[in-house]
Amino acid sequence: MRKHAATVVYWIVAAEFLLGAVTKYWPGVGPFGQDYAVRFADWGYPPWFRFAVGALELACAVLLVIPRRRARFLGAAGLVFVLTGAVTTHIVSHDPVQESLSAPIHLVVAGVIALLNWPAQWQRLLRPWQADAARG
């Protein structure tokens, strides 16, 4: 039962970031009332940077739903990377709390997922082709 509950959490988090990736690609004002091209420019980033962030969110969401520890760790670690940038951006931009509350919450969730899926042998994480070759 515990494993099924964890899988549900992974799918929920992945769905949230899939939705986030879609909104980054949405032209103009999206379904949640934000034009990310304008938001990224207001934060000091080039408007095209939203596509890079959206691609990372999409890749990490896909990795979270793959039922392998290594994939889930890489997805969560990627989200920690993206969300650290998001939290920093909200702090530097002095965004209101109600606009910037989601990023730190998701950062903690992604950090917990990364810790729960931390690889037993980090060498395998860095050299996945050796682990696959050893299995035959």
What can you see in these coordinates?
It is found in: Membrane. Pfam families: DoxX_2. This is Putative membrane protein YphA (DoxX/SURF4 family). It is a multi-pass membrane protein. Keywords: Membrane, Transmembrane, Transmembrane helix. The protein is mainly α. It has one domain. The chain is 76% helix and 0% strand. The chain contains 8 helices and no strands. Helix 1 runs antiparallel to helix 3, helix 3 runs antiparallel to helix 4 and helix 4 runs antiparallel to helix 6. The longest helix is centred in the first third of the chain and has 24 residues. The two termini are 32 Å apart. The model has no long low-confidence stretch (mean pLDDT 83).
**Total domain modules:** 1
Shape descriptor: elongated
Rg, Cα atoms, Å: 16 Å
Tell me about the largest β-sheet: none
Helix and strand string, N-terminal first?
A: HHHHHHHH
Instruction: Outline the low-pLDDT stretches.
Output: none
The first-to-last residue Cα distance is 32 Å
Q: Say how many strands there are.
A: 0
Work out the strand percent. under 5%
Briefly note the structural class of the backbone. Answer: mainly alpha
Indicate the mean pLDDT: 83
Percent in helix:
over 70%
